[in-house]
Amino acid sequence: MNDSKDITSPGYEIPPELRHQVTITTLERIYNWGRANSLWPMMFGLACCAIEMIATAASRYDLARFGMEVMRPSPRQSDVLIISGTVTKKMVPQIVRLYNQMAEPRYVIAMGACASGGGPFKEGYNVVSGIDKFIPVDVYIPGCPPTPQALLNGLIALQKKIERQSLRDLPWYQKGPSEPIPVPVLGPDLMDPRKYALIREVTHRQTPQESQGENAHE
Amino acid sequence: MSEIIPKIAQIPDLSALFPDKVHQDTRLGYQGYIVEREHLLEVVRLLRDEYGYDYLSSVTGVDYLPEGKMEVVYHLYKTLGGPALVLKVQTPREDARVPSLVPLYRGAEFQEREAWDLLGIRFEGHPDLRRILMWEGFAGFPLRKDWREPYFEEEAKPYKSRWPEGFVFRAEDRNPFGDNVQYPPGFDPESWTPEDDEAIYRALKRVEDQDDLHAETLVVNLGPQHPSTHGVFRMVVSLVEETILDLKPVMGYLHRNHEKIGERNTFLQNMPFTDRLDYICSMSNNFGYALAVEKLMGIKPPERAEYIRVMMAELTRFLNHIFAIGFLLNDLGAYFTPALYAIEERELILDIFEAVSGSRMMCNYFRFGGVARDVSDDILEKVRRLVNDRLPRKVDEMDEFLTKNEIVRERCEGVGILTAEQAIANSASGPVLRASGVPYDVRRADPYSIYDRLEFDVAVRYHGDIYDRYLIRLDEMRQSLRILQQVLRDIPEGPIMSGKPQYQVRVPPGEAYGRVEGPKGELGFYVVSNGKPNPWRYHVRAPSFINLTSLVDMARGNKVADVVAILGSIDIVLGEVDR
């Protein structure tokens, strides 16, 4: 991450007498370097993984070493959304809303097995099989829960990713506002507005006899 | 002795008292009495008022699909101590109705709502019967045995796809929606109007608008994303100016379907899931579940295993309490510094857990009839050093820094009061109950494992405010250290497992309720077996969930700024509240 050699080598020769006083770099590199080293995660805990996130922020593992100690409870002030735990259907509308409220550029880390793909609770009726069904994820961290070291590794992986990004093709530096992600609706089950056509198609094909979603609906 | 034993010291013979209303449960492996549902209130009122069964520990439903019956199971205790009195009420499945016990025990409120939500049992006379873990409008009652989740594969594990053929597929690929959802046939999403939160707001108490006072009620939502709700918990409060008039906790944002998954799992497969209930104290959760299943199986772990279990449970209590105190201070505004001190000690205990079980948080360490691995001498030595030297110092340090701190006293003393009567009626347990002046501790009242041999005091405080709930955690940490010192002194050599370790245990048919004094309160597991490798019913009596019943009583009349500290003093963990 703090690879100063990378930042200060713009690709052409700096005169030797200026080398220790002037640094020449590209806008992209200095900008990404700044962004990558001041990532503010959102103070947002979902489940077990949140406890390990707290442990990571505490003195033993010390997130502050990487410029990420400023946890912000408000989505407006944070850069990284760490999905730290099981995403349930009841919670996912709020998570999508939080994501929409974050200022760009914004990043998402799926911490742990549940956030990445449902984890041990995948078959549960109230569990979403991974947050990437709804919002784009930048880094997945395996583990149940991931150890603080694993979380640090994930955050460093995110920093590396940011340093490689180009301002030219990042969506949030283009003209015009970006579209918010449609917030899912809680119906008889979780409904994704992007999938209404599919839902109608399948439910109209099913007759009460052959449906496997059988029994007592109130 | 010719003296008449007072009724409160008797264990009543209900079938003699109510000959045609109550009869003994004679099914093999079952205990307690079956009460006719029309007479439930009458019977329970007598038990509460005359026989001293003032504490309703657990209410849950069981779906006996083959018999076409629903059963509601009540576990009643005396706060004076002693074993449970188990009552059952049966009702037909199609029209499941049972009288509500909320008029007698307010502690039944959330548990009855849960049984309505998940099993569709209607409790007549319940003041606010809404769904609690799922949302209003969710189709079906998920814990009914004939209800199938969208990713349904088979009735019971191990699934054929995994074993013995071992052909694994992605559940998404089998579902027509490619996702974990299902809808009623013919359902049109465009025609759906979301229920929103109108039902919650309707249930809130408000002040009628009065012309002379301009009394207006303001409704404020705290959570589910809020830095001080300890996870995804939501409170809806109605305020008059800044004073709390009414409060409704809203939960279910972390409802991970422990019970449905648990009923598909084999008995042993549930053990790692219990870790994730109260994810700060996985060892105590293991303990409760192991006790319940061991009761059913009729086995006892060997001596050394009992000592190791108690050692782990008490270390867990210590780390939970120090963590709770750290985060209570967080909620009071001392952002993160006290918590850092707490986490430092917690890490040292986690190191021990990692050494014995291989995982920091999710230990999965207990087995039926023992523990998974032995504790080596050098780990014991480490624990000894911690318990005899470092941890007592750290408790004193906390005490010194915080107890006399003026801000702590100013904000905690006399705030969030819960009286002893309210605490008992609300089925509060653990530090919340004991800080209100009720010296009830399962380790003493109904001893399990080796607690009857250990010397310790049941900590009790009498004011029932935040300050006492803080102090009692300090007291309990000291008592835990005292227990640990005895355990480390007396731990014998020997096997750690009765019989040989098994992946598939044989559990005879019957029911069992195993409860332990977890760090947050009474943690109970109600398990029904029908002789198959999977439990027929697996229910968790979660202390944080039921302690939240008291939140309204504590918060009413206080300022809205204090509700954060009050919630912090109950010490909830959302994994356990929502399960």
TrEMBL record, chain B:
Q: What coarse category fits the chief subcellular location reported for this protein?
A: membrane
Record domain NADH:ubiquinone oxidoreductase 30kDa subunit: where: 35-148
Signal peptide, first to last residue: none
- Catalysed reaction, written as an equation: a quinone + NADH + 5 H(+)(in) = a quinol + NAD(+) + 4 H(+)(out)
Q: Which PROSITE patterns match?
A: COMPLEX1_30K (PS00542)
Membrane topology per the entry is:
Peripheral membrane protein
- The NADH-quinone oxidoreductase subunit D domain covers which part of the protein? 331-504
Cite the EC number: 7.1.1.-
**Mind listing the UniProt keywords for this protein, alphabetically?**
Cell inner membrane, Cell membrane, Membrane, Multifunctional enzyme, NAD, Quinone, Translocase, Transport, Ubiquinone
The subcellular location is: Cell inner membrane; Cell membrane
Subunit text? NDH-1 is composed of 14 different subunits. Subunits NuoB, C, D, E, F, and G constitute the peripheral sector of the complex.
Query: What's its job?
Result: NDH-1 shuttles electrons from NADH, via FMN and iron-sulfur (Fe-S) centers, to quinones in the respiratory chain. The immediate electron acceptor for the enzyme in this species is believed to be ubiquinone. Couples the redox reaction to proton translocation (for every two electrons transferred, four hydrogen ions are translocated across the cytoplasmic membrane), and thus conserves the redox energy in a proton gradient.
Family matches, as HAMAP family:
NDH1_NuoC, NDH1_NuoD
Task: Name the protein family.
Answer: Belongs to the complex I 49 kDa subunit family.
Q: What is the name attached to this protein's record?
A: Multifunctional fusion protein
Its source organism is Thermanaerothrix solaris
Phylogenetic lineage: Bacteria, Bacillati, Chloroflexota, Anaerolineae, Anaerolineales
Gene expressing this chain: nuoD
